[in-house]
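REQUEST FORM: STRUCTURE PREDICTION
Request ID: SP-0412
Submitted by: Lab K.M.
Chain count: 1
Length (residues): 195
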Amino acid sequence: MSLPTVAAILLAAGASSRMGTNKMLLEVEGEPMLERAARRAIAAGCFPVVVVLGHEPDRARAVLRELEVSFATSPDPRGPTSASLHAGLRALGPKVDAAIVMLADMPHVTDDMLRALIRSHVTGGAALEVSRYGDVLAPPLLFPRALWPELLAWHGEGCGKAVVKAHEREARMHDWPVERLQDIDTPADYEELTR
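STATUS: Completed
RESULT:
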C-alpha cells in the first residue's frame, strides 16, 4: 500500500500593504522569507509544493527559480484569503490525498512541524490536522481531500478557519510554542524578528 501524497499550498499572494515593501522577499537568517517557507515544505516531503502568487509574481518566481515548486495565481491578491486558497487547491492534481496550508510570512514554522502533521495524517483517525499555539488555531493546517469541497465553498479570511471550526471535535491538535505563531506584517514585526 502506498503512502498518501501530501501537497503543500504556500499562500504568498498578498500585497504587503502594511509592510510597505514585498515582505516575501525580506531576508530571514540569510534567505528570503518565501524561499525559507518553500524549502521547509520540500524538506518535510510535501509534493507538490504549490506557491500561490499575486503581488509582484515575477520577483517571487525569481527567488524560487532553483526549487521544485509550481505556481498558482490568486485572482484577487487584495481580497480574502479564500481566493488564494481556492487557487492553490485547484492547482492540485487528482493523485494528491491531502494538502497542508501554510502562510509564507510565518518564519518560525519548521519542517519538523510539517512532518508531524504528515505522520499523524498517515496513521489516520482524524478528520484534519490542526496547529494550536496556546488557544489559537492557525497554520500549518492539513486538510484531507474529503474536506476540499468545504474549503472551496468557503469565502473569507483565515486559511479555512470556518472549516476547521466545523470539524474541530474530529481534528487532531498539534501543540506548538506560542512564539512560533508570529507572522510578519509590519516593519515593527520584521525589526523584532531580526533584532
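NOTES: The helical segments are 33-43, 57-63, 81-90, 111-123, 148-153, 161-166, 187-194.
Reviewed by: T.R.
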